[in-house]
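As the next step, I selected for study a record pairing a protein sequence with its backbone structure tokens, which the following lines show:
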Amino acid sequence: MPSAASPLIIYRDDGLWATANRDRFEGLRVLQWRPSIVPMDPGVDRIDLLEGLPFADGSTPWIHAFHVLEHLDLHEARAFLVECRRVLRPGGRLRVSTPEFAGHLRRYLECLERARRRPDDPQALTDVEYLRLLVLDQRVRRRSGGRMLAFLRTREVDRELATRALGLTGPFLLDLVRGRDASSASANAASGDAVAARPPRRSLPSRVIGAIRRRLPWPRSRPWWALDCRETRELEITNWDDVSLVRELNGAGFESCVAMSDAESGIERWPDLDRCPRSGSSLERSSIAEGVRP
């Protein structure tokens, strides 16, 4: 079994986060949990968390699990935390971050009240629907992208609201869905630059040809949005907050378990991996906790 030696970053699917942070810590090893059917981000290693971490006991100084736990059921999440404890050196730290579910609910209720006061305001109604999908869609969708993908393609979401809800990931996704080049969108989001979203332009013949090709029986690789969510492990099947994260870290045998902000950490030379290197803005609104292996 190989030794991890270097600190480990484990994430599921966040191209912006990986782009902004891949080279920000010397000797960092980045692992992406993705099924083999899904293409990998460049420059990272694939890992299957359900099979455990392929490293020797006590071999790594710290681990950051970035937006992973919400895609595991409770049994799987607990097994993953125990596996992280095994791989960490004595005194090593595990940092876990998950989407800020409570914050999404809070913003949804605020926008809902505003829409009630302004029932004729189309933007207020759009804001409510966006936040409703943000809370629910990734928990119930059947196809990758779900209703949120169609919504972002057809409705004009307020970029400031998207930033408040998701950090820099919010406007990055708006640009990506509306046809901007992914690397360009990543670069602008990572720098904190605001870029006006432009809708994709496809001619009628190209749309017709695409529809026909999708119905032909020849073997072909499926686009990511045609994959079943059970294949991509895209569904968020558990909800987390700082209180539940601390509780589960304690239950997995960690000590000194505390909630953190994105700028706080007990990790030595912490590179502030939850924030944009240039703008200082949060890449993703997160609930965060850390624990120490005894």
User: Anything to note?
Assistant: The first strand starts at residue 8 and ends at 11. The CA atoms of residues 214 and 220 lie 9 Å apart. Residues 180-201, 216-220, 276-281 have pLDDT under 50 and may be disordered. Strands lie at 8-11, 29-33, 45-47, 60-66, 88-99, 255-260, 286-292.
